[in-house]
Design goal:
Elements: H1 2-19, E1 22-28, H2 33-49, E2 53-59, H3 62-74, E3 81-85, H4 89-94, H5 102-105, H6 107-111, H7 115-120, E4 135-136, E5 139-144, H8 145-150, H9 165-179, E6 184-185, H10 193-205, H11 219-223, H12 227-240, E7 261-265, H13 269-276, E8 280-283, E9 294-295, E10 299-303, H14 310-320, H15 323-333, E11 336-337, H16 340-345, H17 356-365, E12 366-367, H18 375-391, H19 395-412
Parallel strand pairs: 1-2, 1-3, 6-7, 9-12
Antiparallel strand pairs: 3-10, 4-11, 5-7, 5-8
Helix pairs in contact: 10-18, 18-19
C-alpha cells in the first residue's frame, strides 16, 4: 500500500511539474526537408532534456516569412524566438522585434563565438548583439584537382598561396583555352537574391568598396565611388571572356567536370563529392584586391521583444550553441561551426579536415551582410544589378539604378532614424 501511494505521489508530482513547464514558441523557415528534420530533432532533444521548458515550433514558407513576422508583430502575436535569415537582423531590430541578448547569454559563451558570427549578429546603432547562428554556410572556392593538374596549373593549398586577381584571371584563361568557355561555375542557375549578394559582394569589398556607405548609410556614395571601377576591372574580363557559366546554362556543370572551378557554399560539398570523389578540393578564395574578403551567409536565432520568458528563451539558445549541438548541425548541413571550441573538434572544418580552408577564411575574413533596415531592398536591387551586368548592362548604369532604388527606399523611410544621424 505504501509503495502504491508513493508511485501515485511521484506520478502526481511529475504531472504538476510538466503542467508548470514554461512553453516557448519558435517560428522558423528552412531550405529543405532534411534541414527541417534536423531542426525538429534538435528541439525534441531540448524538450526531453529540459522538462521545465518546452518548445513548440511553427515552420513557415521562406517566401512569406518576413511579411508574416511583421504582420504578427503589429498584432502583438510574435513567438518567443525567431530563426531567420541573418540579413534581416537590422530590419527586425529597427522595427523593435528583437531584444539584445548580451546579458542573457553571458560573456563566456559570446567570447567563444567566432568574430564573423558576432559581427553579423550585432546592431550597428548600439553595438549590442541581437541574434546568433550556431553554424554558417560559408563561401568556398572549389576545384577539380585532376582538371587543374592536366592544365598545368599549380593548385594553392595554403591560405597564403591564394591567387591574386591577375593570377585568378590567368588560371581562368588557361582553363578556358584547354577545356572550352565557362570554366567557373558560380551556381547562377538557381541563384536567388541573397546568393547574388553572397557570391559577388567579395568582388566589391576586396577593392575597398561596399554596397552601402557605412558612414552615411547612402548607396550612391558606395556604388558610384571610384572603387566600382576596380570592381569592374575584376569582373568585366570574366564576363567578356565568357569564363562564368551563365544562369541559363545547364545545372551541375562543375559536378559533371564541364567546369573546373566553382564558387559555392560549404553545404554543397556532399553533392560535389558524390560526383567528383577525390578530385574535389576546397582551395583558398582569391585575393581580389587590397582586402582579402569572403562573405557571411547564415540563419540566426533571436529572442523577440514580445516574449514573457527571455531567460528561458536564452536557455534554448545556450543549448543550440553547445558544442554537441553545433557539431551535430555542422555535420548534417556541412556548415561551419560558429564557436571556436566546436570548430577545433570538427572533423570536416577543423584542422586537416577537407573544408578547413573555407572555415578558416570564414572565421577571419568573411564580412557581414549590410546591417541596415533597408536590406530587403538592398538585396533585391543588387541582385538585379549583378544580373544585368552579367547580361551585358554597363556597370555604371546597373549600379546607378541599384543605388537609386536603395536610396529611394531609405528616403521614403526618412533615413531609417537613427541611421540618418550616425
Amino acid at each position: 500500500m505504501k509503495n502504491y501511494l508513493l508511485i501515485v505521489l511521484l506520478l502526481f508530482s511529475n504531472v504538476c511539474f510538466a503542467a508548470d513547464a514554461v512553453e516557448l514558441n519558435i517560428w522558423y523557415n528552412v531550405n529543405s526537408e532534411a534541414e527541417q528534420a534536423l531542426f525538429e530533432a534538435q528541439v525534441q532533444r531540448f524538450n526531453e532534456k529540459t522538462s521545465s521548458i518546452q518548445i513548440n515550433t511553427l515552420v513557415l514558407p521562406q517566401s512569406a516569412f518576413a511579411e508574416f513576422v511583421v504582420k504578427e508583430a503589429d498584432a502583438g502575436r510574435l513567438p518567443d524566438i525567431l530563426y531567420f535569415q541573418s540579413g534581416s537582423l537590422s530590419r527586425y531590430v529597427w522595427s523593435g522585434l528583437l531584444m539584445p541578448i548580451n546579458q542573457l547569454l553571458g560573456e563566456e559563451l559570446l567570447t567563444n563565438v567566432t568574430a564573423t558570427i558576432r559581427q553579423q549578429g550585432t546592431y550597428p546603432i548600439d553595438g549590442r548583439m541581437y541574434a546568433l547562428s550556431p553554424t554558417s554556410d560559408a563561401l568556398a572556392l572549389y576545384a577539380n584537382k585532376s582538371l587543374l593538374f592536366e592544365a598545368g596549373i599549380t593548385v594553392p593549398m595554403q591560405l597564403d598561396q591564394a591567387w591574386n586577381t591577375e593570377q585568378f584571371h590567368e588560371v581562368l584563361a588557361v582553363l578556358a583555352k584547354k577545356y572550352g568557355k565557362w570554366p567557373l561555375d558560380m551556381q547562377l542557375h538557381y541563384a536567388d537574391d541573397d546568393w547574388y549578394v553572397t557570391a559577388f559582394s567579395p568582388f566589391i569589398q576586396a577593392t575597398g568598396g561596399d554596397i552601402i556607405s557605412k558612414s552615411k548609410w547612402d548607396a550612391h556614395i558606395a556604388l558610384q565611388s571610384l572603387f566600382m571601377e576596380d570592381f569592374e576591372d575584376i569582373l568585366a574580363p570574366m564576363i567578356k571572356q565568357e569564363w562564368i557559366v551563365p544562369s541559363h546554362k545547364s545545372t551541375k556543370r562543375f559536378e559533371k567536370g564541364r567546369a573546373s572551378l566553382a564558387i559555392a557554399t560549404t553545404s554543397q560539398w556532399p553533392e560535389f563529392k558524390d560526383e567528383l570523389g577525390t578530385d574535389l578540393i576546397a582551395i583558398p578564395f582569391p585575393v581580389l584586391g587590397p582586402y582579402h574578403v569572403t562573405s557571411n551567409d547564415n540563419w540566426s536565432y533571436g529572442i523577440t521583444s514580445q516574449t514573457q520568458y527571455p531567460q528561458q528563451a536564452a536557455e534554448f539558445m545556450k543549448f543550440i550553441l553547445s558544442d554537441e549541438e553545433v557539431l551535430t548541425t555542422s555535420a548534417e548541413m556541412f556548415s561551419v561551426p560558429a564557436t571556436y571550441s566546436a570548430l577545433q573538434k570538427s572533423l570536416v572544418f577543423g584542422e586537416s579536415g577537407p573544408l578547413t580552408i573555407p572555415a578558416q577564411q570564414f572565421a577571419t575574413i568573411a564580412r557581414a551582410k549590410p546591417l541596415h533596415p533597408a536590406y530587403p531592398t538592398i538585396r533585391a536591387a543588387m541582385a538585379d544589378a549583378i544580373d544585368g551586368i552579367l547580361a551585358g548592362t554597363e556597370f555604371s548604369e546597373a549600379l546607378t539604378l541599384a543605388a537609386e532604388e536603395i536610396d529611394f527606399d531609405i528616403e521614403a523611410n526618412k533615413g531609417y532614424p537613427p541611421f540618418n544621424d550616425m
